[in-house]
Amino acid sequence: MAAFPLAFADLRAWIDYLERHGQLARVEAPVHWHSELGLVLRRAWDVYGDAAPALLFTNIIDYPPPGPHRLFTGALRGHHRLAMLMGLDPAAAGPAQLVEHLLELLHDRRRHLPPKQVHDGPVLENVLTGDAIDLFRFPIPHWNERDGGRYLGTLHCVITRDPDSGACNYGTYRMQAFTANEAAINISPSQHIGGHFAKHLRRRRPMEAAVVIGQEPALTLLATCPTHDPVAEIEVAGALRGAPIEVVRCRTVDLEVPAHAEIVVEGYVDWQERRMEGPFGEFAGYHGMPPSPKPVFKVNAVLHRDDPIFRGTLEGHPVNEDHVMSSVLFSAYFTELLRRLGVPGVRRVAMPLDAAGYGHCVVSIRPSAAGQADMIAHALWASRLSPFTVKHVIVVDEDIDPWNSEQVNWSIAWRVRATEDIKIWPRHRSLRTDPRIPPEEKDFCDRMLIDATRPVTWKPRSLWGYEGVEKGRPLRFPPSTKPSTVLARQVNDGWQRYGITPAPCYNGKPAGMMQSWWESDLIQQHIDGRMDP
Ligand SMILES: Cc1cc2nc3c(=O)[nH]c(=O)nc-3n(C[C@H](O)[C@H](O)[C@H](O)COP(=O)(O)O)c2cc1C
Ligand SMILES: [Mn+2]
Question: How far is CA 525 from CA 364, 522, 528, 529, 531, in A?
Answer without folding.
Answer: 16, 5, 5, 6, 6
